[in-house]
Amino acid sequence: MDASQRNLTGQRTETFKKSKAVSKVQSVRLRRQQRLQRQDSIGAIEELVQCGICLEKLADPKMLPCQHTFCLNCLQSHLLAHKLLVKQQSLDSQSALSKKAAAIKCPVCQKKVELQKGVDSLNDLPKNLYIESVLKLIDGNTSPLTPKNDYRCVKCQIFSQQQGQCCQHCMQVFCNVCWNEHLTELESNLTTLVKQVDESKVRLDHKLENFESRCRQLVENIKEATLQKIELIKMDEEKVLKDVQIIMQEGKVAHDNVDDKLQELKDKLTSKSFEKSPGKVFSFMNLHKETSRLLSQVSHYGEARVIFDPDTFKLDQDTEGVYKDVGDGENVTLSRSTSSLERFEVASQHYRSRSFVPKLVWNKCPRPASAGVPPWDNRLLYIAATDTHTVLILNKDRRKLEGRLTSSEMVYPQGLAFSKTNSEIYVSDKWKHCIHVFSKNGDYLREMLSKGTGNGKVRSPDGIAMGPNEELVICDTGNDRIIVVNSLTGEHLSTIGLVNNKTMLNMPTGVAVSGDKIVVADTGNHRIKIFYMDGRKIHEFGSLGRDRGQFRSAEVVAVDTSGCILVGDGGNARVQIFGPDGTLVKIFGGSSSGDEGFGWVSGICVTPQFDIITSDSKRRCLRIF
After folding, report:
1. Rounded-to-integer distance, Cα 135 and Cα 198, Å
2. What is the CATH number of domain 344-357+411-600?
3. pLDDT tens per residue, range 581-595
4. How many CA atoms lie within 13 A of 39 on its CB side?
5. CA–CA gap between residue 534 and residue 495 (Å, rounded)
6. What is the spatial distance between Cα 212 and Cα 388, in angstroms, rounded to a whole number?
7. 3-state DSSP call for residue 318?
8. What per-residue confidence (pLDDT) applies to 39?
9. What pLDDT, on a 0 to 100 scale, did the predictor assign at position 597?
10. The pLDDT of residue 325 is above 80
11. Distances (CA, A) of 360 to 329, 417, 623, 625
C-alpha cells in the first residue's frame, strides 16, 4: 500500500469516528428531549385529572354544563355548605335537602346551574367519560369511589352523620367540636381588629393634620398672590399718574406758548409803528392772518381728551393723539401712535396668507441651537453649532459658509445676541455657565459672568437678547430667572421674574426684546410671559397641551417689528405665531407634516422683511421661510 492509499484510509477512519461521535451526541440529546416531553405529558395528565375543589385526583367525575369537571362528593359538599349559609337553619338530613330545588355556581367560572331535585340532581349530571377513561389508565381500577353522604369537617376531616356548622366568614363546614374552637379563634382576632382600628385612627389624624397644613399653605399662597397683584396695580397706578402729570405739563407748555403769542400779537396790533408803515395793507393782511391762526388754536385747545381705561389700566385718547393748537413744528404727542396697531394688522394678514414652504433648507447643520442675523450685514446668518462647539457663519444669499467663531474656552454654545453699537457677538455657554464675546471680525474678546446663584452669576444660561439700551438680557435657566447685565462689563443691572425673592419662572429658555418689553419662553410652565424692562409682569398666555395656543416645551421665542410673537413649540414640533396680546395668528409645522416637518425647534428668529429662520436640533437642519 503506497502513501496516498494510507492517507485516504486514515481520512476515512477519522471521518467515521467523527460521525459516530456526532450520532452519539444526537442520540443523547434526543433521549433528553423525550424524557422532558414525558415529564411535561405526565404533568399535563395530572393537572387534567385534578378536582378544582379538593385539588386531588378526581373521584366519580361529574361534568357541569360549563364543561368543568369535579368530584361528585365535592359538589355535594359545596352545595350543602351553600345551603347552610343561605338558609341559616339546620337541616335534619341530606334527603330533606335533596327534595328541594336549588342552584349551584361553578367554582371555576361561576356559571349558575339550576338543580330541580336539589342534591339528587348532582347524581344525574353526566360523567366526563374522557377523564374517567384516563383515570382508569392511571389507576388500573374500573370501579369509581362511592360518594359518601356524610358531612366532613374542613378542619379535622372527620365525617359525621350529624348536621355541621357553616361559617359565613370562611364559607367552610365544621363539626360541632371544631365549630366552638373556630368561634374562639374568631374572637381572638378581635384584638387584631382593635389594633388595626387604632392604627387607622392615628393615620386619619395625621392625614387631617397634613390636609390642614396644605389648606393653611393655600391661604398663604392666596394672600401672597393678592399682595403681589396689589403691588403690581400700585406700580401701574404710579406709572399712569406720572403719565397724567406729563400730559398736564405738556398742556401747560402748550397754553403758555399760545398765550405768549397772543400777547405778542396784541403788542403788534397796538403798536404805533403800524400807522407809520409804508405797506399798511400788506402788514394788515399778515396781522389778520396771524390773528386768525391764533384764534383757531385757542378754539381747538384741549380737544384731545385723555381717557383712562380701567380694564387695561392705560391712558388713551379719542383723537389722533396730537394737539393742533400749537405752532408749526411744536406739536406735542400725548399717547402712542396707532401705527403699531396698523403694523400688527398688516403683519397678521401677511402671516395668515403665507403657505410657509421653506425657500432654503440646510440639512448638514451639526445639531444647531439658536440662530440670528447681525445688524451690520443682513446677508449673514450666525448659527450656534453645539456638536462642533463653534458658531457657524452662513451667507444666506450665496448659501455658503463664510467662517466660524471658535475658542478653546467655548464648550456648548446656545444663545446668540448682537450689539449694533459695539459690533460684538454674544454667545451663551450652557455648560461652562458664562457668556463669550466676539468681535464682528471673529476675534475672541472676553468672557463674562461665572457659575453661581448671586448677582453677576448664572447657571446654565440659555437664550439671550439685546435690550433697547444695549443691555444684555439673559435666560438664567438653572436659577429660574431672567437677569439684565451691562453688555460691556457684565455688571448686574436687574432681575426679572422674582417677586418677594420667589421666582414665577420655571426653566426659562428663550427671550426676546420688543421696545421696553421682554418676552420670555417659560418652558417649565409651558407659557409665554411678558414683562416690562423694570420687571413688572404685563400678562401671559399658553398652557400645557397639544391644542391651538398650547405648548409642550415652549423652547424659543422671537418678536418681529410689528410686535408679533413667534414661539418654537419644541414638544409639538411646530411654530405658533401670536399677536402682542397673545391672540393666535398662525400655526405651521407639527407632527402631521411628516418628514418635511420639524423634529424639535431649537432656534428661531425673524428678519425685518418677515423671513422666519428656524433651526432643528433633532433633525439637524436649518430652514428659512
Report:
1. 54
2. 2.120.10.30
3. 888 999 998 766 656
4. 6
5. 9
6. 54
7. coil
8. 55
9. 83
10. no
11. 47, 23, 6, 7
